[in-house]
């Protein structure tokens, strides 16, 4: 490179670039750690300056490695201070205290989901037993080593960041097991990746460093202000050269939110396949949300921790006939379905209780009772509400894409084909799995799982063939396939995001740049 070209290149250097280059005055290669300590830069500024120098052909990355650093999440720090829920229960029992699960929830300040997860784990492991009156009791042959080991790993990690690769294998296994999910998704450990880079100058970079050493680094001003002109302080100062080849700032224009765009995309897909849209109320009674779907009134999913109840009014005035009578008969003894039913006395007053719709299948139940076309294809984009701890893949309110296909010749194989199509065309998933499942209202039943590029395998939802106990009391006497898939999780895969909360982001850059990969 000619002397004039070198001078011109030298004049174009940003002060941050000059600081990085001067770290090479007495060596051929330099680590990122050396630059951070000698140039007084933080990691973000180093990344920015090194990127500029690489673009200009002055710097190369000679070597790069990644260190996985482990630290405690907010939940982990709570467990460091108070102990894990399991160890708190074990230590309290060892101290001679007597209590029930209800006592823990009411007076220990622990989340109900944590209490349920901890007591379930301890009971399954044979550590505790629940005796008369619901009192917890420590088993005589209780093996608490696994819970104590987890607590010791939390204590050893403390408030620092430790290198995952330097930990013993047993400790690594515990960290990995409690990294992504715990119970309903509360992680104890956070694993962050730190890049360790070694930089080397190019031939042109070495020439420029020699020239830079001779000239030195002087302060450059980036703007000429009215005060400088008034006071004359601009005299003798050096101003940074303007680069007129730089692209102008991006103009922000109005557009749909990426998630709204995704929901519209799903709707157009279904309409394009010949489906008709079905709608239903957000405030629903238990009859259409659960009873009409052959979900028994003693089913655990119907308790207060999974469903939001409406306070006022608490009940619907009536349930449509003859459906209330026919569904009640199906629950009691199967009615005219050929089933033996659930064999209990159906409570019509309970069926009237009002809730926030917990599943989109309630819309399908209402559609079946409305005299649908046979053959017919229906879909709904339904907002649903369930009690859940908020994390990367869970939210207390979410969208489901609900659908049914009705016809004499409809088979389970047709359902699998549709689920595969949804996974590929809507979620844009490259890998998916069908896994056997159980639901009170379908038989056979299946779950669709897709692989998120960062989070791994996650469930999209359930599907199956509606049982006769569902269809016949509602007036349908032909096969019906049905599905209810989580649209929020499908959007996470399609939009390439790692946290379900980002779907509702107010980050303007996210809103302006995220696009659905329509052609992938």
Short summary:
It is built from 21 helices and 17 strands.
Verbal overview:
By secondary structure, the protein is of the alpha+beta class. The chain contains 21 helices and 17 strands. The protein folds into 3 domains: 95 residues, Arc Repressor Mutant, subunit A, CATH 1.10.10.10; 114 residues, Arc Repressor Mutant, subunit A (Orthogonal Bundle), CATH 1.10.10; 255 residues, 2-Layer Sandwich (BirA Bifunctional Protein, domain 2), CATH 3.30.930. 37% of the residues lie in helices and 20% in strands. The protein is globular, with a radius of gyration of 31 Å. About 1% of the residues have low confidence.
* Beta-strand residue fraction: 15-25%
User: On the 0-100 scale, what is the average pLDDT?
Assistant: 87
- As residue ranges, the low-confidence spans are 181-185
Cα-atom radius of gyration: 31 Å
Strand order of the largest sheet: 9-12-13-17-16-15-14
Indicate the CATH architecture of the largest domain.
2-Layer Sandwich
| Helix-residue proportion | 25-40%
What is the 3D form?
A: globular
Per CATH, the class of the largest domain reads Alpha Beta
Largest sheet: 7 strands, mixed
According to CATH, the fold-level topology of the largest domain is: BirA Bifunctional Protein, domain 2
Secondary-structure content class: alpha+beta
Overall tally of domains: 3
